Amino acid sequence: MEGYELSMATRSFKVFKLRDDEEGDRGVSSRFVEVKDLNGDAVFVGDNYLTAVRAREFEGVRSDSVYYTDDFSEFNFPDVNLGPHDVGVFNVKEKKFGSFYVSTPAQNRDMPPPIWIFPTIAPDMD
Q1: pTM as predicted
Q2: Which residue spans traverse the membrane (predicted)?
Q3: In what order do the strands lie in the sheet with 65-68?
């Protein structure tokens, strides 16, 4: 369609934690509390998947950040196959978006939605 721009970019994040039972139970809506930082952790979100890691254990991973990948791809539209296009990082403390991987439309073409791959971390036996 002429004059139409498809934009699926992430524009905001709110991060919540589930309160402990000891904090009191005032109903379902009060069981979730918005957090202002991730206590040095990093959260990875994408395609119905979420995991959290200690950022200090992974070189280059930013603490108190949410790394996210596109959960939408134009594979269902045969004439518009651009692949994933919304990949970024959000710093919860600073409430700022950033990038960690920048690709061109040609690199994204015909690519499936991205996934996260984590190395196995051996437990500290000391």
Answers
A1: 0.70
A2: none
A3: 49-54, 41-46, 65-68, 88-91, 96-98
